[in-house]
């Protein structure tokens, strides 16, 4: 008496890829119009309600030391607790980067970013 179930092998589970041509999708009669960039106000206020979140097209990875990450978490908790602002860490970082870039553009060599980087 065999209590083990018989299972199908790979040949039964997967279809062969040779010999069968891939179906060709029909081409549309005319190309779709190019997508226009949404205005910033429209992107920040989706139809479901104003959340302040924006869809981003690119991603970078940034590594923080433990102390820097703890400071970021503390800032996030402070924003919630004291000011009633609920945001994620990424939004805090994006706003800080935008502010640093704006300061650099406005003040050049006198910007906070330049002075901090020169001290390091």
Extract low-pLDDT stretches: 40-46
Major beta sheet, specifics?
none
Residue share in helices?
40-55%
Q: Any idea what the radius of gyration is?
A: 26 Å
**What is the CA-CA span between the terminal residues?**
76 Å
Number of helices: 5
What class would the helix/strand composition place it in?
A: mainly alpha
Mean pLDDT: 80
Element pattern in H and E: HHHHH
The gross shape turns out to be elongated
Our estimate of the beta-strand percent is: under 5%
Number of strands: 0
Protein name: Cobyrinic acid a,c-diamide synthase
Region (Disordered): 1-56
Biased composition (Pro residues): 23-35
Organism: Tessaracoccus flavus
Question: Can you offer a commentary on this structure?
Answer:
It is built from five helices and no strands. Mean pLDDT is 80; it is low at 40-46. It has helices at 10-13, 40-44, 66-83, 89-107, 112-119. It starts with 9 loop residues before the first helix and ends with a helix. With 120 residues, the chain is mainly α. It has a domain at 57-120.
Layout of helices and strands:
Elements: H1 10-13, H2 40-44, H3 66-83, H4 89-107, H5 112-119
Q: Keywords for this structure?
A:
about 120 residues; mainly alpha; 5 helices; elongated; Cobyrinic acid a,c-diamide synthase
Please summarize what this structure is.
The protein has five helices and no strands.
